[in-house]
Amino acid sequence: MVDFGRLPEECILHVLSRTSPEDVCRAAMVCPVFRSAANFDFLWEKFLPFDVDDILSRAVDRIEYSSKKELYFNLCDPIFIDDGKMSFCLEKSSGRKCYMLSPKLLRLEGFEWISLRDSRFSKVAELVDGPWLEIYGTLETKILSRETTYGVHLVFSIVERSRGLDRFHKATVKLGGNVSHRVGRFRGRKRKQPSSNGSNLAAVEVMEPHRRPDGWMEIEIGEFYTRDGDDGEVKMCVVDNNARHISGLIVHGIDIRPKC
Amino acid sequence: MATIITKEQQEKEKMVTLVSSDSEKFVVEQKVAEKSHVIKMVMNCCGIESPIPVRRVKGDILKSILEYCEKHSKGEAQEVMEKWDKEYMDKAEKDLVFFHDLMLASHFLHIQELVDLIAVTFAGMLKMKSPEEIRQKFNINNDLTKEQEEHIMTTFGWAFQPI
Protein backbone atom coordinates (compact mmCIF):
# COMPACT_ATOMS: atom_id res chain seq x y z
CA MET A 1 0.00 0.00 0.00
CA VAL A 2 1.26 3.46 -0.87
CA ASP A 3 1.61 6.20 1.73
CA PHE A 4 -0.51 9.24 0.82
CA GLY A 5 1.58 11.22 3.31
CA ARG A 6 4.42 11.12 0.79
CA LEU A 7 2.44 12.90 -1.92
CA PRO A 8 3.81 16.28 -2.99
CA GLU A 9 2.52 19.21 -0.99
CA GLU A 10 1.02 20.69 -4.16
CA CYS A 11 -1.29 17.66 -4.57
CA ILE A 12 -2.49 17.88 -0.99
CA LEU A 13 -2.95 21.63 -1.28
CA HIS A 14 -5.24 21.12 -4.27
CA VAL A 15 -7.27 18.56 -2.37
CA LEU A 16 -7.59 20.71 0.75
CA SER A 17 -8.74 23.66 -1.36
CA ARG A 18 -11.77 21.53 -2.30
CA THR A 19 -12.75 20.83 1.32
CA SER A 20 -14.08 23.18 4.00
CA PRO A 21 -12.17 25.23 6.60
CA GLU A 22 -13.32 22.75 9.23
CA ASP A 23 -12.00 19.76 7.28
CA VAL A 24 -8.69 21.56 6.68
CA CYS A 25 -8.21 22.15 10.41
CA ARG A 26 -8.73 18.47 11.15
CA ALA A 27 -6.57 17.36 8.22
CA ALA A 28 -3.70 19.55 9.49
CA MET A 29 -3.28 17.00 12.29
CA VAL A 30 -2.76 14.06 9.90
CA CYS A 31 0.94 14.41 9.06
CA PRO A 32 3.58 17.05 8.22
CA VAL A 33 2.66 17.42 4.54
CA PHE A 34 -1.02 17.95 5.34
CA ARG A 35 -0.02 20.37 8.11
CA SER A 36 2.20 22.36 5.81
CA ALA A 37 -0.44 22.50 3.05
CA ALA A 38 -3.06 23.61 5.60
CA ASN A 39 -1.11 26.81 6.22
CA PHE A 40 -0.84 28.04 2.64
CA ASP A 41 -2.25 31.46 1.76
CA PHE A 42 -3.59 30.00 -1.50
CA LEU A 43 -5.93 27.81 0.55
CA TRP A 44 -7.27 30.44 2.94
CA GLU A 45 -7.71 32.92 0.15
CA LYS A 46 -10.21 30.48 -1.36
CA PHE A 47 -12.12 30.31 1.92
CA LEU A 48 -12.27 34.09 2.34
CA PRO A 49 -15.23 35.88 0.71
CA PHE A 50 -14.53 37.16 -2.80
CA ASP A 51 -15.34 40.71 -1.64
CA VAL A 52 -13.12 40.58 1.46
CA ASP A 53 -11.16 43.66 0.35
CA ASP A 54 -14.36 45.68 0.19
CA ILE A 55 -15.39 44.44 3.65
CA LEU A 56 -11.96 45.34 5.08
CA SER A 57 -12.16 48.81 3.55
CA ARG A 58 -15.45 49.36 5.39
CA ALA A 59 -14.09 48.15 8.75
CA VAL A 60 -14.20 50.69 11.56
CA ASP A 61 -10.90 49.41 13.01
CA ARG A 62 -8.06 48.37 10.78
CA ILE A 63 -7.70 44.57 10.69
CA GLU A 64 -4.08 43.51 11.11
CA TYR A 65 -2.91 40.19 9.68
CA SER A 66 0.27 38.60 8.46
CA SER A 67 -1.28 35.76 6.45
CA LYS A 68 -4.59 34.90 4.83
CA LYS A 69 -5.08 32.21 7.46
CA GLU A 70 -4.71 34.79 10.20
CA LEU A 71 -7.12 37.10 8.39
CA TYR A 72 -9.64 34.26 8.11
CA PHE A 73 -9.54 33.58 11.83
CA ASN A 74 -9.57 37.28 12.71
CA LEU A 75 -12.77 37.62 10.71
CA CYS A 76 -14.39 34.75 12.61
CA ASP A 77 -14.90 37.26 15.45
CA PRO A 78 -17.32 40.06 14.61
CA ILE A 79 -15.86 43.30 13.26
CA PHE A 80 -17.69 46.60 12.93
CA ILE A 81 -18.24 47.99 9.45
CA ASP A 82 -20.10 50.98 7.97
CA ASP A 83 -19.39 53.41 10.83
CA GLY A 84 -20.37 50.80 13.38
CA LYS A 85 -23.89 50.38 12.03
CA MET A 86 -23.31 46.76 11.11
CA SER A 87 -21.09 43.93 12.24
CA PHE A 88 -19.61 41.23 10.06
CA CYS A 89 -18.04 37.86 10.70
CA LEU A 90 -17.38 34.53 9.05
CA GLU A 91 -18.95 31.29 10.17
CA LYS A 92 -15.81 29.43 11.20
CA SER A 93 -16.57 25.96 9.87
CA SER A 94 -17.67 27.03 6.40
CA GLY A 95 -16.38 30.56 5.81
CA ARG A 96 -19.86 31.80 4.99
CA LYS A 97 -20.77 35.39 5.76
CA CYS A 98 -22.77 36.56 8.77
CA TYR A 99 -24.03 40.08 9.41
CA MET A 100 -25.71 41.80 12.29
CA LEU A 101 -27.69 44.97 11.62
CA SER A 102 -27.60 47.49 14.44
CA PRO A 103 -30.90 49.08 15.53
CA LYS A 104 -29.75 52.23 13.69
CA LEU A 105 -30.33 50.38 10.42
CA LEU A 106 -33.85 49.30 11.38
CA ARG A 107 -37.09 51.18 11.23
CA LEU A 108 -38.57 51.11 14.70
CA GLU A 109 -41.83 52.64 15.88
CA GLY A 110 -42.06 54.02 19.40
CA PHE A 111 -38.48 53.28 20.46
CA GLU A 112 -35.94 55.46 22.26
CA TRP A 113 -32.18 55.30 21.93
CA ILE A 114 -30.18 54.14 24.91
CA SER A 115 -26.61 52.94 25.53
CA LEU A 116 -25.91 49.66 27.26
CA ARG A 117 -22.44 48.84 28.51
CA ASP A 118 -22.19 45.31 27.17
CA SER A 119 -24.24 45.50 23.99
CA ARG A 120 -22.45 44.99 20.69
CA PHE A 121 -23.56 48.32 19.22
CA SER A 122 -23.10 51.73 20.84
CA LYS A 123 -26.80 52.59 20.62
CA VAL A 124 -29.65 50.18 21.15
CA ALA A 125 -33.37 50.85 21.08
CA GLU A 126 -35.86 50.51 23.91
CA LEU A 127 -39.59 50.32 23.31
CA VAL A 128 -40.77 52.75 25.96
CA ASP A 129 -44.53 52.60 25.85
CA GLY A 130 -46.11 52.03 22.54
CA PRO A 131 -49.59 51.09 21.56
CA TRP A 132 -48.10 48.51 19.22
CA LEU A 133 -44.84 46.94 18.06
CA GLU A 134 -43.29 47.48 14.64
CA ILE A 135 -39.75 46.58 13.62
CA TYR A 136 -38.66 46.66 9.98
CA GLY A 137 -35.31 45.89 8.37
CA THR A 138 -33.90 45.26 4.90
CA LEU A 139 -30.67 43.83 3.56
CA GLU A 140 -29.24 43.46 0.06
CA THR A 141 -28.63 39.74 -0.44
CA LYS A 142 -25.72 40.37 -2.79
CA ILE A 143 -23.51 40.95 0.27
CA LEU A 144 -24.30 37.45 1.57
CA SER A 145 -22.86 34.05 0.66
CA ARG A 146 -24.49 32.29 -2.24
CA GLU A 147 -26.60 29.14 -2.19
CA THR A 148 -27.10 29.40 1.53
CA THR A 149 -30.12 29.20 3.82
CA TYR A 150 -29.93 32.09 6.24
CA GLY A 151 -31.77 32.37 9.53
CA VAL A 152 -32.90 35.83 10.64
CA HIS A 153 -32.75 36.43 14.39
CA LEU A 154 -34.00 39.40 16.35
CA VAL A 155 -31.57 39.98 19.24
CA PHE A 156 -33.18 41.50 22.30
CA SER A 157 -33.34 41.83 26.05
CA ILE A 158 -36.20 42.74 28.33
CA VAL A 159 -36.18 45.32 31.13
CA GLU A 160 -37.53 44.39 34.56
CA ARG A 161 -40.83 46.23 34.26
CA SER A 162 -42.07 45.27 30.84
CA ARG A 163 -45.58 45.00 29.49
CA GLY A 164 -47.22 43.05 26.74
CA LEU A 165 -44.19 41.01 25.70
CA ASP A 166 -45.80 37.65 26.43
CA ARG A 167 -48.22 38.34 23.61
CA PHE A 168 -47.70 36.63 20.28
CA HIS A 169 -46.27 38.78 17.50
CA LYS A 170 -46.12 38.10 13.79
CA ALA A 171 -42.82 37.93 11.94
CA THR A 172 -42.35 37.97 8.19
CA VAL A 173 -39.21 37.53 6.12
CA LYS A 174 -39.61 38.09 2.40
CA LEU A 175 -37.18 37.61 -0.45
CA GLY A 176 -38.63 37.91 -3.93
CA GLY A 177 -41.66 35.63 -4.10
CA ASN A 178 -40.57 33.59 -1.07
CA VAL A 179 -42.14 34.58 2.21
CA SER A 180 -41.73 32.95 5.60
CA HIS A 181 -44.36 33.67 8.23
CA ARG A 182 -43.73 33.01 11.90
CA VAL A 183 -45.40 33.65 15.18
CA GLY A 184 -43.32 34.22 18.29
CA ARG A 185 -43.10 35.95 21.59
CA PHE A 186 -40.38 37.50 23.62
CA ARG A 187 -41.27 35.82 26.88
CA GLY A 188 -43.79 33.56 28.47
CA ARG A 189 -44.10 30.02 29.68
CA LYS A 190 -43.90 27.24 27.16
CA ARG A 191 -47.37 26.32 26.14
CA LYS A 192 -49.24 25.35 23.07
CA GLN A 193 -49.44 27.75 20.19
CA PRO A 194 -52.42 30.07 20.09
CA SER A 195 -55.69 28.27 19.63
CA SER A 196 -56.32 27.40 16.05
CA ASN A 197 -60.09 27.60 16.03
CA GLY A 198 -60.74 30.02 13.24
CA SER A 199 -57.35 31.63 13.69
CA ASN A 200 -55.09 32.20 10.69
CA LEU A 201 -52.04 31.50 12.89
CA ALA A 202 -52.59 27.76 12.83
CA ALA A 203 -50.43 27.05 9.80
CA VAL A 204 -47.36 29.05 10.82
CA GLU A 205 -44.43 28.10 13.00
CA VAL A 206 -44.36 29.32 16.59
CA MET A 207 -40.93 30.44 17.73
CA GLU A 208 -39.56 30.58 21.26
CA PRO A 209 -36.63 32.77 22.32
CA HIS A 210 -33.17 31.34 23.10
CA ARG A 211 -30.21 32.65 25.04
CA ARG A 212 -27.19 33.50 22.89
CA PRO A 213 -23.58 32.81 23.86
CA ASP A 214 -23.15 36.58 24.38
CA GLY A 215 -25.89 36.56 27.02
CA TRP A 216 -28.61 38.35 25.05
CA MET A 217 -31.77 36.64 23.90
CA GLU A 218 -32.74 35.97 20.33
CA ILE A 219 -35.73 34.70 18.44
CA GLU A 220 -35.67 33.38 14.90
CA ILE A 221 -38.06 35.51 12.92
CA GLY A 222 -37.67 33.72 9.60
CA GLU A 223 -35.35 32.34 6.98
CA PHE A 224 -34.48 32.74 3.31
CA TYR A 225 -32.30 31.14 0.67
CA THR A 226 -29.74 33.00 -1.44
CA ARG A 227 -29.24 31.57 -4.90
CA ASP A 228 -26.76 33.28 -7.20
CA GLY A 229 -26.12 36.50 -5.32
CA ASP A 230 -28.61 38.47 -7.39
CA ASP A 231 -31.79 37.77 -5.47
CA GLY A 232 -32.53 41.37 -4.48
CA GLU A 233 -33.42 42.76 -1.11
CA VAL A 234 -34.65 40.71 1.81
CA LYS A 235 -37.36 42.40 3.90
CA MET A 236 -37.86 41.52 7.54
CA CYS A 237 -40.53 42.66 9.95
CA VAL A 238 -41.88 41.91 13.41
CA VAL A 239 -45.30 43.32 14.20
CA ASP A 240 -47.88 43.22 16.97
CA ASN A 241 -50.50 45.80 16.15
CA ASN A 242 -53.22 44.57 18.47
CA ALA A 243 -51.54 45.42 21.74
CA ARG A 244 -52.82 48.22 23.93
CA HIS A 245 -49.65 48.74 25.90
CA ILE A 246 -46.33 47.25 25.04
CA SER A 247 -43.02 48.30 26.59
CA GLY A 248 -39.67 47.15 27.98
CA LEU A 249 -38.25 45.49 24.86
CA ILE A 250 -34.65 46.41 24.04
CA VAL A 251 -33.67 45.67 20.46
CA HIS A 252 -29.94 44.97 20.00
CA GLY A 253 -30.15 44.25 16.30
CA ILE A 254 -30.96 41.62 13.70
CA ASP A 255 -28.49 38.78 13.28
CA ILE A 256 -28.39 37.09 9.87
CA ARG A 257 -26.36 33.89 9.74
CA PRO A 258 -26.33 30.59 7.84
CA LYS A 259 -28.48 27.83 9.22
CA CYS A 260 -26.74 24.51 9.87
CA MET B 1 -9.46 3.97 -26.05
CA ALA B 2 -5.89 4.42 -27.13
CA THR B 3 -5.26 2.10 -30.03
CA ILE B 4 -2.20 1.25 -32.08
CA ILE B 5 -2.63 2.13 -35.76
CA THR B 6 -0.50 2.10 -38.90
CA LYS B 7 2.09 4.68 -39.85
CA GLU B 8 0.03 5.98 -42.77
CA GLN B 9 -2.90 6.73 -40.53
CA GLN B 10 -0.55 8.27 -38.00
CA GLU B 11 0.56 10.86 -40.54
CA LYS B 12 -2.96 11.50 -41.72
CA GLU B 13 -4.48 12.21 -38.31
CA LYS B 14 -1.43 13.78 -36.67
CA MET B 15 -0.75 10.97 -34.27
CA VAL B 16 1.86 10.93 -31.55
CA THR B 17 3.45 8.00 -29.74
CA LEU B 18 3.83 8.12 -25.96
CA VAL B 19 5.98 5.62 -24.10
CA SER B 20 5.31 4.78 -20.45
CA SER B 21 8.02 4.14 -17.83
CA ASP B 22 7.60 0.38 -18.39
CA SER B 23 8.02 0.81 -22.17
CA GLU B 24 4.38 0.42 -23.16
CA LYS B 25 3.58 2.38 -26.33
CA PHE B 26 0.41 4.38 -26.90
CA VAL B 27 -0.41 6.08 -30.18
CA VAL B 28 -2.96 8.84 -29.77
CA GLU B 29 -4.18 11.88 -31.67
CA GLN B 30 -2.19 15.00 -31.00
CA LYS B 31 -5.24 16.83 -29.61
CA VAL B 32 -5.67 14.05 -27.02
CA ALA B 33 -2.02 14.26 -25.91
CA GLU B 34 -2.30 18.05 -25.78
CA LYS B 35 -4.65 17.79 -22.78
CA SER B 36 -1.43 17.38 -20.82
CA HIS B 37 0.26 20.73 -20.60
CA VAL B 38 3.64 19.05 -20.16
CA ILE B 39 3.29 16.81 -23.23
CA LYS B 40 2.02 19.78 -25.22
CA MET B 41 5.21 21.68 -24.40
CA VAL B 42 7.34 18.71 -25.39
CA MET B 43 5.45 18.36 -28.68
CA ASN B 44 5.82 22.09 -29.35
CA CYS B 45 9.55 22.03 -28.96
CA CYS B 46 10.48 18.54 -30.19
CA GLY B 47 7.71 17.74 -32.68
CA ILE B 48 5.65 14.54 -32.84
CA GLU B 49 7.82 12.46 -35.16
CA SER B 50 9.71 10.54 -32.52
CA PRO B 51 8.04 8.78 -29.57
CA ILE B 52 7.77 10.86 -26.39
CA PRO B 53 8.91 9.10 -23.21
CA VAL B 54 6.64 9.61 -20.18
CA ARG B 55 9.19 8.31 -17.72
CA ARG B 56 7.41 8.76 -14.45
CA VAL B 57 4.10 7.17 -15.45
CA LYS B 58 3.50 3.43 -15.72
CA GLY B 59 1.55 1.84 -18.56
CA ASP B 60 -1.71 1.09 -16.70
CA ILE B 61 -1.89 4.66 -15.39
CA LEU B 62 -0.99 6.26 -18.72
CA LYS B 63 -3.62 4.14 -20.41
CA SER B 64 -6.29 5.35 -18.01
CA ILE B 65 -5.14 8.96 -18.31
CA LEU B 66 -5.24 8.83 -22.11
CA GLU B 67 -8.74 7.37 -21.90
CA TYR B 68 -9.71 10.44 -19.86
CA CYS B 69 -7.97 12.85 -22.28
CA GLU B 70 -9.58 11.22 -25.30
CA LYS B 71 -13.07 11.50 -23.81
CA HIS B 72 -12.42 15.10 -22.86
CA SER B 73 -11.19 16.11 -26.31
CA LYS B 74 -14.49 15.28 -28.00
CA GLY B 75 -16.50 18.29 -26.85
CA GLU B 76 -19.52 16.32 -25.64
CA ALA B 77 -22.45 17.75 -23.68
CA GLN B 78 -21.79 18.70 -20.08
CA GLU B 79 -24.26 16.20 -18.60
CA VAL B 80 -22.65 13.38 -20.58
CA MET B 81 -19.20 14.39 -19.35
CA GLU B 82 -20.30 14.72 -15.72
CA LYS B 83 -21.75 11.22 -15.78
CA TRP B 84 -18.66 9.84 -17.46
CA ASP B 85 -16.35 11.60 -14.97
CA LYS B 86 -18.32 10.21 -12.06
CA GLU B 87 -18.04 6.65 -13.34
CA TYR B 88 -14.34 7.18 -14.06
CA MET B 89 -13.74 8.36 -10.49
CA ASP B 90 -15.96 5.68 -8.91
CA LYS B 91 -13.74 3.10 -10.55
CA ALA B 92 -10.50 4.89 -9.63
CA GLU B 93 -11.26 5.36 -5.95
CA LYS B 94 -11.98 1.64 -5.44
CA ASP B 95 -8.24 0.95 -5.73
CA LEU B 96 -6.35 3.45 -3.59
CA VAL B 97 -2.92 2.54 -5.02
CA PHE B 98 -4.24 3.23 -8.51
CA PHE B 99 -5.94 6.41 -7.26
CA HIS B 100 -2.68 7.58 -5.70
CA ASP B 101 -0.69 6.96 -8.88
CA LEU B 102 -3.37 8.58 -11.03
CA MET B 103 -3.23 11.67 -8.84
CA LEU B 104 0.54 11.89 -9.02
CA ALA B 105 0.55 11.39 -12.79
CA SER B 106 -2.15 13.99 -13.42
CA HIS B 107 -0.09 16.51 -11.45
CA PHE B 108 3.13 15.52 -13.16
CA LEU B 109 1.55 15.72 -16.63
CA HIS B 110 -0.28 18.91 -15.67
CA ILE B 111 -3.80 17.95 -16.75
CA GLN B 112 -5.73 20.61 -14.90
CA GLU B 113 -9.26 19.23 -15.36
CA LEU B 114 -8.19 15.82 -14.10
CA VAL B 115 -6.23 17.31 -11.20
CA ASP B 116 -9.41 19.12 -10.14
CA LEU B 117 -11.62 16.07 -10.59
CA ILE B 118 -9.32 13.96 -8.42
CA ALA B 119 -9.01 16.74 -5.82
CA VAL B 120 -12.82 16.96 -5.50
CA THR B 121 -13.07 13.18 -5.12
CA PHE B 122 -10.27 13.06 -2.55
CA ALA B 123 -11.80 16.03 -0.68
CA GLY B 124 -15.06 14.09 -0.45
CA MET B 125 -13.18 11.24 1.23
CA LEU B 126 -11.74 13.60 3.89
CA LYS B 127 -15.09 15.12 4.80
CA MET B 128 -15.95 14.92 8.52
CA LYS B 129 -13.11 12.43 9.16
CA SER B 130 -10.84 12.54 12.20
CA PRO B 131 -7.06 12.67 11.62
CA GLU B 132 -6.79 9.04 12.77
CA GLU B 133 -9.47 7.89 10.31
CA ILE B 134 -7.68 9.70 7.49
CA ARG B 135 -4.33 8.13 8.43
CA GLN B 136 -5.83 4.66 8.49
CA LYS B 137 -7.67 4.98 5.22
CA PHE B 138 -4.71 6.43 3.33
CA ASN B 139 -1.94 4.53 5.12
CA ILE B 140 -0.25 7.67 6.44
CA ASN B 141 2.34 7.67 9.21
CA ASN B 142 1.98 10.40 11.77
CA ASP B 143 5.42 12.03 11.77
CA LEU B 144 4.29 15.16 13.57
CA THR B 145 6.32 16.10 16.63
CA LYS B 146 4.62 16.79 19.95
CA GLU B 147 5.42 20.51 19.52
CA GLN B 148 3.86 20.56 16.05
CA GLU B 149 0.72 18.84 17.33
CA GLU B 150 0.38 21.34 20.17
CA HIS B 151 0.86 24.22 17.78
CA ILE B 152 -1.84 22.87 15.46
CA MET B 153 -4.24 22.52 18.39
CA THR B 154 -3.83 26.19 19.32
CA THR B 155 -5.09 27.40 15.92
CA PHE B 156 -7.16 24.50 14.67
CA GLY B 157 -8.29 22.90 17.92
CA TRP B 158 -11.89 24.13 17.57
CA ALA B 159 -12.42 21.75 14.66
CA PHE B 160 -11.90 18.77 16.94
CA GLN B 161 -14.94 19.50 19.10
CA PRO B 162 -17.57 16.77 18.90
CA ILE B 163 -19.72 17.30 15.84
Automatic annotation (TrEMBL), chain A:
Pfam families: F-box-like, PP2. CDD domains: F-box_AtSKIP3-like. Transmembrane segments: none annotated. Residues 1-47 form the F-box domain. Coiled coil: none annotated. Gene3D superfamilies: 1.20.1280.50. This is F-box protein At2g02240-like.
Automatic annotation (TrEMBL), chain B:
One of its GO terms (biological process) is ubiquitin-dependent protein catabolic process. Residues 14-73 form the SKP1 component POZ domain. Residues 112-159 form the SKP1 component dimerisation domain. InterPro entries: SKP1 (IPR016897), SKP1-like (IPR001232), SKP1-like_dim_sf (IPR036296), SKP1/BTB/POZ_sf (IPR011333), Skp1_comp_dimer (IPR016072), Skp1_comp_POZ (IPR016073). Pfam families: Skp1 (PF01466), Skp1_POZ (PF03931). Belongs to the SKP1 family. This is SKP1-like protein. The gene is LOC120253203.
